[in-house]
Amino acid sequence: MPFRIRPYHRDDCAACRAVFVQSVREGTAKHYTLEQRAVWAPLGPPTPAFCQKLEDQQVFVATHDGEIIGFMSLTSAGYLDLAFVLPRWMGRSVAQTLYERLVEWALDHGLTHLRTHASHFARPFFARNGWTVDHPETVSRDGQSFERFAMSIDLRRFAFNLDYN
Asked: Is the whole model's pTM more than 0.90, yes or no?
């Protein structure tokens, strides 16, 4: 495997923020306007709130040669909050491997239902993994409107073969 999955460390915040910004600004270009992407992922260093969010959640990062190439986070209540991969690593099983590791953690901690708000870009990934759209919704931020999808999954319906040795 060309990449590894490991738990998030406090000093990963800036690298995760960079993955988030690049993923949104480049990876979602077919689905969102330049103005929407600029509002969604403004340039600049991570805010203390962003770093605190990562510390308060279960986060796994994917690394390659010491570089963080993707990350995924889950709250203790089962909300899959952040899921981002560098564009040059998209389509190379990074998101799938992160997702499977997060699901393994969720099941180990007694979570059976997960939910998320997925972008147009992320919705097909979640659908391939058995998630269903509960309803579409539009949110507004800084004068931009974004369509996203409230999605959920009952993990008890799926069997996973997860091996990370």
From this structure: yes
DSSP string, 92-145: TTHHHHHHHHHHHHHHHTT--EEEEEE-TTTHHHHHHTT-EEEEEEEEEETTEE
3: its two tokens: 């990449």
Cβ distance 90 to 118 under 8 Å? Answer: no
The CATH number of residue 122's host domain is: 3.40.630.30
- Report pLDDT digits (tens) over 43-64: 999 999 999 999 999 999 999 9
Indicate whether 160 pLDDT > 60.
Answer: no
- Under a CB-based contact definition with an 8 Å cutoff, are residues 122 and 20 in contact? no
Measured distance between the N- and C-terminal CA atoms of the chain, rounded to whole angstroms: 12
Q: How many structural domains comprise the chain?
A: 1
